Amino acid sequence: MSLVTDAVEPVPTPQGVPVLEAKRLVKTFGKVVGxxxxxxxxxxxxxxxxIGDNGAGKSTLIKCLTGAYVPDQGELLLDxxxxxxxxxxxxxxxxxxxxxxxxxxxxxxDVASNLFLGRERRKPGILGTxxxxxxxAGMRAEAREQLxxxxxxxxxxxxxxxxxxxxxxxxxxxxxxxAAFGSKVVVLDEPTAALGVRESNQVLELIxxxxxxxVPVVLISHNMPHVFQVAxxxxxxxxxxxxxxxxPRSHSMTDAVAIMTGAAVA
Length: 266
Hints:
Elements: E1 20-29, E2 32-42, E3 47-52, H1 58-65, E4 73-78, E5 81-83, H2 88-93, E6 96-99, H3 111-115, H4 126-129, H5 136-149, H6 167-181, E7 185-189, H7 197-212, E8 217-220, H8 224-230, E9 233-238, E10 241-246, H9 253-261
Parallel strand pairs: 3-8, 3-9, 6-7, 7-8
Antiparallel strand pairs: 1-2, 1-4, 4-5, 9-10
């Protein structure tokens, strides 16, 4: 049995249709404009990085894509069909999983319990239905399967408490949970911000493995070397608008920073 069975059943995206698309999103907070007509497209098996200076609208954009905010104007499409997320759970139900910078893991629980946090399984039969007994052994077995599928070799024991793991290992747990249940899109918010070089490289390898498995990834990061290492395309936000969409092949890191700060245009 695969861990993905608790997620939305993956449905192939029609060829040529973006998995996730935003059209002219607008979001205001009183007189403050968070997003001003922002559009983007995310395709199957693609890593789309979103970069921008502080206040550029990156967080607002991500929150609109994942149900934390409801756009004032504009349209969201999943597999070409309009969707209306009123809360984060709506996006999760649709197969969009988000790993925020603060991780949202439970330190006291073990690795397997964190992977199934909020989606715990009960034992079959009367033990599960009447006594509500959790299927701990089954969840641990499937957690091992998921970690192996993602090639996470640093987490051999799924019974160890997350509070005993390193920062990189905790990030791996959060990414593995998102990959397990994110049947459509995985969103990563600054996944390497608090990590050292070795642990950051492990997270970047995880992102590349997700792409190999045709899971599209949205990566928000301030780390330009990391962005240029793994991204297929780079969406640049500036002052609430999309300044440009570039690729690591068409532009340099210097070019990206210049567009991001307004010193140059694409």
